[in-house]
């Protein structure tokens, strides 16, 4: 009887692995790029000065769908992958730290361009 309990527990713990990962899970690297670009889109739509929340939502959905097409994913795949990574706080935090690093690097690059000396022709 003890052996059966041990086997049942072993089966239970081995079945709790990454079995819940979606079949079409977006890789961490691609997820970082998608989340980064999604945050950029949110900022772009926010700066459009649209008259209503509905207009902003439509604009964002349009741009988001274009983004997903560029990456070859759809909303279901993105949402499933996002939910999967969100189940693992350490992994999710690592992804968002990489997103933040990319956004910071982009911001610094933009600042450098703004403050660069203009090129003059002689």
Structure description:
With 122 residues, the chain is an all-alpha fold. Helix content is 75%, strand content 0%. The termini are far apart. Residues 1-17 have low confidence and may be disordered.
List keywords for this structure.
122 residues; mainly alpha; 0% strand; disordered N terminus
Helix content: over 70%
Number of helices: 5
Residues in β-strands, percent: under 5%
Spell out the helices and strands N to C.
HHHHH
The computed structural class is: mainly alpha
Largest pleated sheet:
none
**Mean pLDDT over the full residue set:** 84
Low-confidence stretches: 1-17
Termini gap: 91 Å
Using the alpha-carbon principal axes, give the shape.
globular
Beta-strand segment tally: 0
Radius of gyration: 22 Å
Short description:
With 122 residues, the chain is mainly alpha-helical.
Topology:
Layout: H1 2-15, H2 28-46, H3 53-71, H4 75-86, H5 89-115
Helix pairs in contact: 2-3, 2-5
């Amino acid at each position: 009887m003890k052996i059966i309990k041990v086997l049942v527990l072993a089966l239970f713990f081995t079945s709790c692995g990454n079995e819940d990962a979606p079949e079409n899970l977006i890789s961490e690297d691609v997820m970082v790029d998608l989340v980064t670009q999604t945050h950029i889109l949110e900022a772009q739509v926010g700066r459009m000065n649209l008259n209503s929340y509905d207009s902003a939502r439509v604009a964002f959905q349009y741009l988001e769908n274009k983004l997903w097409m560029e990456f070859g994913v759809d909303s279901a795949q993105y949402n499933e992958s996002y939910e999967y990574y969100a189940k693992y706080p350490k992994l999710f935090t690592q992804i968002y730290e990489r997103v933040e690093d990319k956004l910071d690097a982009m911001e610094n690059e933009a600042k450098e361009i703004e403050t660069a000396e203009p090129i003059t022709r002689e």
